[in-house]
Amino acid sequence: MGLFVNIKTDSYHLGIWKIEETTEELLDLLPEKEYYAAEIERFKTLHRMQEWLSVRALLYKLLGFHVRVFYHQSGKPYIPDYFISISHTKGYVAVMLSDVGEVGVDIEYYSQRVHKVASKYMRDDEVASAFQGDNTWGLLLHWSAKEAMFKMINYSEIDFRKHLHILPFEIAEEGIFHAHEYKTAQNNKYKIHYLINSDFVLTWVECVS
Question: Domain 2-100, what architecture?
């Protein structure tokens, strides 16, 4: 399917790629095919090869030209002239770009397993509201939003319960909620955009202070 969601504003460009192509089909979408064919040899599983190639195909689609992705020692990706955030989940990858400032995006596949780890990231003053009678969606949105904030803050040793706070909100199919971080001296406030798909939740972050 390729490009599944495409959102562009004055300050960022965000896309989701639904992975339905074969490895060879993904390679055919990219320039420098021989380079990418050699690079994926380091992956041991087919799904990791396709996931990695899909990120590059999506990036090529969003930018309209080819760039290679590099990584800091922390694992944070970077490319020339842009801030970038990358996320992936079962069958999908997401990429967010900006030439203005740091960005954070996260995509999470729907799973009941999030209930088992909720105590590790949900604060006592946070409430996971239900969507269509299922509070799994609320838990996923809290987890995803904190992952996206973590990527944007770019600090190590962030405690998701202590340092990241999601303010109460009612869940719709898509919308905005707000959050604070208590890790930095600035105690930044964030606007969290989100959308719910039958397969996943997607969140992406804008700093408002």
Answer: Alpha-Beta Complex (3.90)
